[in-house]
Input
Amino acid sequence: MKGKTGELSLWSKIAFGMGDIYGGGSMIIVGIYYLYFLTDVVGLSPALAGTVLLVSKIWDAVNDPLMGVITDRTRTRFGRRRPFLLAGVAFIFLSYFMLWYPVSYESEAARFAFVLLAYFFFDAVITLVMVPYNALASELTLDYSERTSLISIRMGFSMFSSILCAVVPMEIVKMIPDVRTGHMVMGASFGLFFALPFLVTFFYTKERPEFQEVLPEFNLVKAYREPFKIKSFLHVMSMYLFSFLAMDVVMAIVIYFMTHYMKRGGDTNYVLGALLITQLLVIPAYYWLSRKTSKKTGFITAVCLWMVVMAYSFFITPASGRASVFIFGCAMGLATGGVVVMIYAIFPDMPDVDELVTGMRREGVYAGLLTFMRKLSSALAIFLISQAISLAGYVPPVSETIDGVTKLVQQPQSGAFLLVLRAVFAAVPMVLLVFCLFFALRFPLTPQVHARLKDFLARRRAGAMTDELAAEEKRLKDILV
Output
């Protein structure tokens, strides 16, 4: 770390960014393949499979903000965030292996119970690691533009991981003749891939001791309630939830869309790979745009592009040819790359607004709420898709075992199912993005306002509260709160 509030070394940014190999990749695999794994490999009904993820969110509503309060109050010689990253290494591996273990109990209720337990464990580990990790971003630098640079590098690692996680999992499964064993090997492989980078993040990042001087009170209800009284935070949370819910809907249904409507199931991971590679390539363009204008402008630009892409997707048919789905994938990457980079660059500014209101640094509380919203969007998407395909009459594949090797044989689907599939794939994300755009246009934290906020907080921390400063505090609260 080079400056007290500003510039970070490139290595510090890289070490921090490596942590999001887990955050970006683990949810991609779950979002794309987990519902399919539960319905077609484990053998749960679609409605029951979607319920697994939604039920876990009830606990997350308490669990994630609680972890935020805990990490804000933690005091060790390694800081208040990094010890949890180190503690999570072994748990990440074990939880990911359990998540993809193809339990084969005869009773569907027993299979459901195991899957629910495995997902709860996976969910708890994400909370343990990602809440402190997300909180760390706000502490490494206090500079508006430097945070964008830090998050751009983080998103580079996240999207690199996402590319691998979209393409490689099913290639690992295909390499092994037995589909059940293939999923176990895949789970173990990615468990290691996600766990080990946190060793680098732990050893090569530093926290700010001055942010640990004031110990926040242990009041979970207050920590949960207070952020939702802040206008800026409500806008960011709405932008985040609606954009990621739209993304997760597409990710959850794309394998069914490609397999049963486009009849190109084998191309699914390559289309997703094209999407994610494009996301990675456009990071510098959105970083440049945010420096020239603002993070808000970059986000709005990306959302508008995304709406155009989803409108185009409704006109894709099996007769359109293979190129059409790859064009769609690249166009989606062009749009969603900006959404992801900009929203994660905006979020570290929220604890600054909270400090304006409370006088405390509560990055953990905000990171807990962010982590909860991320998991909620994924669970909601998978639950909604599972209910939609169940009601539309989805016919699962038939499992056949020949010479000890288990294969899945796809079954024909009804015209009603295919119609629902197309409508959900194109229309639902469009509606969600309209809501997202509504809140983005009203987001009040511009670069100019943030510069004023940073200056005010620095002067107030120094104990220089004057009538002029009190007037500036009121003006800032009128804008942001």
Remarks:
- The mean pLDDT is 88.
